[in-house]
Design brief:
Layout (H helix, E strand, L loop, with lengths): L5 E2 L68 E3 L13 E2 L15 E3 L10 E2 L1 H4 L21 E3 L18 E6 L1 E2 L24 E6 L8 E6 L7 E9 L4 E10 L7 E2 L1 H4 L5 E6 L7 E5 L6 E5 L7 E4 L4 E6 L7 E5 L4 E4 L7 E4 L2 E8 L10 E7 L5 E7 L22 E3 L2 E6 L6 E6 L5 E2 L8 E8 L6 E6 L5 E7 L6 E12 L5 E3 L1 E3 L7 E7 L2 E7 L7 E2 L20 E4 L13 E2 L8 E8 L8 E5 L7 E4 L3 E6 L4 E6 L7 E5 L6 E5 L6 E7 L7 E7 L7 E6 L6 E2 L5 E5 L7 E2 L2 E8 L5 E2 L7 E6 L7 E3 L3 E3 L5 E3 L17 E4 L3 E3 L10 H4 L2 E4 L6 E7 L5 E3 L3 E10 L6 E5 L5 E4 L9 E4 L4 E11 L2 E12 L4 E5 L3 E3 L3 E9 L7 E6 L6 E3 L3 E5 L4 E11 L2 E12 ...
Parallel strand pairs: 3-8, 50-54, 63-69, 71-77
Antiparallel strand pairs: 1-5, 2-18, 4-46, 6-29, 7-10, 9-49, 10-11, 11-12, 12-13, 14-15, 15-16, 16-17, 18-19, 19-20, 20-21, 22-23, 23-24, 25-26, 26-27, 27-28, 29-30, 30-31, 31-32, 32-33, 34-35, 35-36, 36-37, 38-40, 39-40, 40-41, 41-42, 43-44, 44-45, 45-46, 47-48, 48-49, 51-53, 52-53, 53-55, 56-60, ...
Organism: Sparus aurata
Family: Belongs to the VPS10-related sortilin family. SORCS subfamily.
Membrane topology: Single-pass type I membrane protein
Length: 1243
């Protein structure tokens, strides 16, 4: 925040304070950390607050280190290791001067109207930085009774409810620091000194410095209040190197902070404490956690910290959430995302649920949830989805869990707040939000049709409607403000382009402030024409106007500021530290008084700012200081106290009893103090302030107790009060009523009584136009009237309207929520009751429950049917699921919970809905993809193909489901895939060599891949192989096994033939019985058309001969030998390979004779050898090529033959030459048997 960074020439003063607190209300409890007991900004991403440490101290004694301060909600706190994560505060100070005991305070003086400051140090935007340049890390809003908000941030929503502003005593604080040196002193004095005037009241003060733990750099300070005199302080040393607390000291005061007692002996002298919690419904109960690096325990006290009992924990607590009414009930969130519950104030814990989203768990809301121990939470499923789950804290088994929203939701989107529950549903492209009002069924929220929000935050829900800040598709650093109806469903625009400001921690804060004590009064900064201006409304955004600047400055000089060219502009950023007031302050017990930092001019500026005050609810303004000050309300708002910003050390405070017209200066410290926080009105009956601060970098924490009771001379009586009429520029009717307040007469030094009544009377007014806002679907035009938006059809009647019933026909207006006007134009603007007409169905819409068009096979699919127009009770609904089944309903009301169906097969189904009545019909269709995850893919390709010949490639997918699988083919060297919906593709390889084919199949969320290599040649020969039956017994039919067996077969073939290894390829087919193909490839250097040599033919015949003579065999495993056969010649060997047969030689000779005879027949009849496949490319003839492949359902491989691709003359000449030589010489080399056979054929 800009006002936190100050600059003093030559001193390089700098201060960065982070504070956070969230008080716990009896009615509403939220899991976020925020301040609920005082006006403070709404923080939506507090877990990411970070602040870097500054440089070490320089020689200037007043130079400050960085200060990181954080206050947490009573009962709702976070623990994260490290400074950036622990949500704590650091304060740096220097040596403390030794002061004498018992020093009296004086120096009381009076200042006139609006005193100014002429000191050299000043505040400005030069040190604060541009507040408009923050990222959308979070969104914050200042609010009268503390933050109440929810958000859809990066991943979703956040929800927190504050408590009443009068509960300021319910505050705890965290103060962190780096300290060196130590000092302790106490002082108080009843006598004044200096320039005090006779008769002026004096303050009584005492100071205590924490000693013995000067090295400690963190401190937790808690004052329970409620007439209690106990203050607890936990100081600790956080080691940044190891990321944990190494030392701690617990202090306790029983006299409102005058003295403190060290409590280490009560908790264990060696026990290291890390966090302190106080029960919000019974402040006497305290819970202290030990640092888990040493031990995981909890210390429990029931007597305000006087004594403790220790209990072991089995988990590390990150955050706690106490029940809003039951003092012993608490929820604990662990470091491993588990949620635990305790019903005995932390003595025993029980697991509720695992995988719970941080800060997305809530206790039940009284009056709405039936069970007081009900827990709302956002939990993750095993497959990574997120669900909204409810169950009882001590009975949260799977059987006892409920799922109020049947589908999945976005992460960090669950918000349980007041009467509402919000969720965001994951959709593609657009965000969809649902709301449940008073635990009814979830209904989709209705924003203007083309708002198209990219970010949405729930600002508040406490006034029977929802305030939402929406960043639309065309906005970057601004938000639009929307207000809903009572049910939180229909939203209308209240203000466009509300400015956001960057906070200290990088958070985005919405420049919107709700004035405390006056219903419907808001102040906002709106960006308009590249200028930011401040506007005010008295009727919840129905009408806005600029602020009238003061007529004169502090010196009485006239200010010529004419609307609308010039006006007063206010900074609306509340302090992130609830113990520093920030830039604007109001209090519900002081209605009409607004104190803020601002400037006068054409637009909002962060230079030349001053402090301004309004005593009549923003109608008129006066300047009270020329510098920024922190402002607090004393005595229930009867007095104002001002202290300079913490970047400037001060020893004085200023008090005013006449609404800022006269200020009295009081000295609370003889040495200037850097004020880091102030506790005001911590108790209901005492008048005590406590200042937290430091004198310099090396000083210890200074706790200054100030009793301001002495400044009052007496208690107020009836004569000390006067009436004040709330008005808006003279208009007495605000939010439909005339309100008269009782206020203390300015300048009376009397103490307000605890029974002081703020509102004397409230009289309803006659309704007028400004009491009504535009209804959903309508927009306010230039003439002030509400007209239908271009996208809205006002004649549309709800589908729930049936013949014979009535419905409310909107006039385009709706009464502002909580407006109390009566009569007047109320009847004219109120929706009129009309009889439902009989209409044909129109605007039929069919969707799925989760908005997706895909479903998993066997899952329960829910369809939703929506009808824009038509008699829902008289309209028949039919739904055809597209798989041969259909359902019919007599009316639309039966389909409200959705129509469920389970698909038993995968595919793309045409789902059709039909709405029909006697006047007509309407129909709509959607196409649903029911998918089944792919478990296996196998690529089937030929092992060798001919260049420039088309080849078929097939991918077999298991399980097989048509139309739901997408195929991606990478063929050859192509870098881009070919995408098909069919599992087969044809392709032609233009070049020789080894080519790779890859296929990917995608189904549902699964992608599988298979790759094969293909040899591309000009021509080749092949033989089909079979094996002895014993091989099938060991065939697991997997690719790896086939590759290994193919390699063994090739090795066996090389042992019986001289065919070159690089020209031999064996491919084993899938399936049983086991089969294979032997490919004989040409030499890589052999050109097209080159004549085959006689030696190559002899090698081929030698291989064939070996196959048919049982000469090719291999050992699969010990004792198991497998014989390889030529499939087409014979199914049994001509020669028995059993060594006990003695006629093997004779049979072999007969085989050779048979082979010679076959050659002669080929020559004689010019026939082809049927069992040798010769593949080649012939450009002269159009011959059909058929390449063997294995189909998906075939049990045996399909074998196809092609014609000879070489010329017939080549073979005929070879055979003719052999006959003419009167013989044929065949050399068969068998390496295994080592023999040579010569065959001579004679005439």
């Amino acid at each position: 925040m800009e006002t936190w960074a100050g600059f003093c020439p030559g001193l390089h003063l700098s201060l960065s304070i982070w504070l956070m607190i969230a008080a716990h209300t009896l009615q509403n409890t939220k899991a976020e950390i925020t301040c609920a007991s005082c006006p403070s900004p709404v923080q939506l991403h507090l877990e990411n607050l970070q602040l870097g440490m500054r440089a070490e101290p320089t020689e200037q004694p007043s130079t400050l280190k960085s200060i990181r301060v954080e206050f947490r909600e009573l009962g709702v706190t976070d623990q994260i290791n490290g400074v950036d994560d622990e949500h704590e505060t650091g304060v740096s100070v220097e040596d403390v001067p030794q002061l004498p005991q018992d020093i009296s305070l004086d120096g009381v003086s009076a200042k006139g109207d609006a005193p100014g400051s002429n000191e050299e140090c000043h505040q400005g935007s030069d040190n604060a930085g541009d507040p408009e340049q923050g990222e959308d890390a979070a969104l914050q809003r200042a609010k009268r009774s503390g933050p109440e908000f929810a958000e859809f941030g990066v991943n979703g929503w956040t929800g927190v409810t504050g408590m009443d502003a009068d509960a300021s005593e319910d505050r705890g604080s965290l103060l962190d620091a780096h300290r060196q040196g130590r000092s302790e002193f106490r002082w108080n004095r009843d006598e004044g000194r200096g320039n005090n005037r006779q008769g002026e009241p004096r303050l009584t003060s005492s100071t205590f410095a924490l000693t013995g733990d000067s090295a400690h750099n963190h401190a937790v300070v808690y004052w329970s209040g409620q007439n209690s005199s106990v203050i607890l302080i936990l100081t600790k040393l956080y080691d940044f190197h190891i990321g944990s607390v190494t030392e701690s000291t617990l202090w306790r005061s029983t006299d409102y902070g005058s003295t403190y007692e060290r409590m280490n002996d009560k908790v264990g002298s060696k026990t290291v404490l890390s966090y302190l919690y106080v029960c919000p419904t019974n402040k006497r109960k305290i819970m202290v956690l030990t640092d888990p690096e040493f031990e995981s325990s909890v210390l429990i006290s029931s007597d305000e910290g006087a004594s403790y009992q220790k209990y072991r924990l089995t988990f590390y607590v990150l955050s706690l959430l106490f029940h809003p009414t039951e003092e012993d009930w608490a929820l604990a969130y662990s470091h491993d995302q588990k949620l635990y519950s305790s019903v005995d104030f932390g003595r025993k814990w029980q697991l509720i649920h695992e995988h719970v989203t941080p800060n997305r768990f809530y206790w039940s809301v009284s009056g709405l949830d039936k069970d007081p121990d009900l827990v709302h939470m956002e939990a993750h499923t095993p497959d990574g989805n997120v669900q909204y789950v409810t169950c009882k804290a001590q009975m949260c088994t799977e059987a006892n869990r409920n799922y109020p929203f049947p589908g999945y939701i976005d992460i960090s989107s669950l918000v349980v707040q007041d009467d509402y529950i919000f969720i965001q549903v994951p959709t593609s492209g657009r965000a969809t939000y649902y709301v449940s009002y008073k635990r009814e069924s979830f209904i989709q929220t209705k924003l203007p049709k083309y708002s198209l929000p990219k970010d949405l935050h729930i600002v508040s829900t406490d006034e029977k409607q929802v305030f939402a800040a929406v960043q639309e598709w065309n906005q970057n650093d601004t938000y639009n403000l929307y207000l809903s109806d009572t049910r939180g469903i229909y939203f209308t625009l209240a203000m466009e382009n509300v400015k956001t400001t960057r906070g200290i921690g990088g958070n985005q804060m919405l420049d919107l402030y709700e004035v405390a004590g006056i219903k419907g009064m808001l102040i906002a900064n709106m960006r308009q024409d590249n200028q930011v201006k401040t506007y005010i409304t008295y009727n919840k955004g129905r009408d806005w106007r600029l602020l009238q600047a003061p007529a004169a400055d502090m010196d009485g000089n006239d200010i010529h500021c004419i609307l609308p060219f010039c006006s007063l502009h206010l900074q609306l950023q509340m302090s992130e530290n609830p113990y520093l007031s920030g830039t604007i302050s109001t209090k519900s017990s002081a209605p009409g008084i607004i104190v803020a930092t601002g400037n006068i001019g054409a637009e909002l500026s962060y230079n030349n700012v001053g402090m301004f005050i309004s005593s009549d609810a923003g109608n008129s303004w006066r300047q009270i200081f020329e510098e920024e000050h922190n402002m607090w309300f004393l005595d229930k708002g009867g007095a104002l106290v001002a202290v300079k910003q913490p970047s400037v050390p001060t020893s004085d405070l200023w008090v005013s009893f006449d609404e800022g017209r006269q200020w009295t200066q009081h000295s609370f410290s003889p040495v200037p103090l850097f004020v880091d926080g102030v506790l005001v009105e911590a108790g209901a009956e005492n008048q005590i302030m406590t200042f937290f601060g430091h004198f310099n970098q090396r000083s210890e924490w200074q706790l200054i107790k100030i009793d301001y009771k002495s400044i009052y001379s007496r208690k107020c009586t009836e004569e000390d009060y006067q009436t004040w009429h709330l008005h808006n520029q003279g208009e007495p009717c605000v939010m439909g009523q005339k309100q008269i307040y009782m206020k203390r007469r300015p300048g009376n030094y009397c103490m307000l009584g605890k029974d002081y009544s703020r509102i004397l009377s409230a009289e309803s007014c006659i309704c007028r136009a400004h009491d009504f806002e535009c209804d959903y679907g309508y927009e306010r035009r230039g003439d002030g009237n509400c007209r239908p938006a271009f996208w809205f059809n006002p004649s549309t009647v709800s589908r729930s309207c049936s013949q014979g019933q009535n419905y409310l026909n909107s006039t385009g207006y709706r009464k502002v929520v909580l407006n109390n006007c009566t009569k007047g134009v109320k009847e004219m603007y109120t929706a009129r009751k009309q009889q439902c007409p009989k209409r044909p169905p129109k605007g039929l819409l069919l969707t799925t429950k989760d908005g997706k068009l895909t479903a998993n096979l066997g899952s329960n699919m829910t369809f939703l049917v929506h009808l824009d127009e038509g008699d829902s009770l008289q309209t028949n609904i039919q739904l055809d699921f597209g798989d041969g089944t259909a359902v019919s309903y007599s009316n639309l009301s039966w389909t409200e919970e959705g129509i469920k169906h389970i698909y038993k097969s995968a595919g793309i189904f045409r789902v059709t809905a039909l709405a029909e009545n006697t006047l007509g019909y309407d129909t709509t269709t959607l196409f649903l993809h029911v998918t089944c995850p792919v478990e296996h893919v196998q690529l089937l390709t030929p092992f060798v193909v001919i260049r420039n010949k088309e080849v078929n490639i097939t991918a077999v997918v298991l399980p097989s489901h048509s139309r739901t699988v997408t195929y991606f083919w990478w063929l050859g060297n192509n870098t881009e895939p070919v995408i098909t919906l069919d599992g087969s593709i044809s392709y032609t390889f233009p070049t020789e060599g080894m080519h790779t084919i890859t296929v990917q199949v995608a189904a549902a969320n699964t992608i599988l891949q298979d790759t094969k290599a293909i040899a591309v040649k000009e021509f080749f020969k092949s033989l089909l192989l079979s094996f002895s039956p014993n091989l099938d017994e060991f065939n697991p039919d997997i690719p790896e096994w086939r590759q290994d067996v193919g390699r063994v077969i090739k090795k066996a073939l090389l042992q019986v033939s001289d065919f070159p290894e690089e020209q031999l390829l064996v491919a084993v087919f899938p399936g049983v019985p086991t089969a294979a193909e032997l490919f004989l490839l040409p030499h890589k250097n052999q050109s097209e058309g080159k004549k085959k040599s006689e030696e190559e033919l002899v090698q081929v015949w030698a291989t064939i001969f070996a196959l048919n003579q049982n000469l090719v065999e291999f050992e699969l495993k010990p004792g198991v030998r497998v014989i390889v056969y030529n499939t087409q010649l014979t199914l049994a060997p001509l020669v028995d390979s059993n060594p006990r047969h003695s006629s093997s030689a004779m049979l072999m000779l007969l085989s050779v004779v048979f082979l010679g005879l076959a050659v002669f027949l080929i020559y004689k009849f010019k026939r082809k050898i049927p069992w040798i496949n010769i593949y080649a490319e012939v450009n002269q003839e159009k011959e059909q090529e058929m390449i063997g492949s294995v189909g998906q359902g075939d049990s045996t491989p399909k074998i196809t033959l092609s014609e000879f691709s070489t010329s017939k003359e080549l073979m005929e000449k070879e055979l003719d030459a052999r006959v003419k030589r009167n013989g044929l010489a065949t050399l068969i080399t068998a390496q295994k048997h080592n023999f040579i056979i010569w065959i001579n054929m004679l005439h």
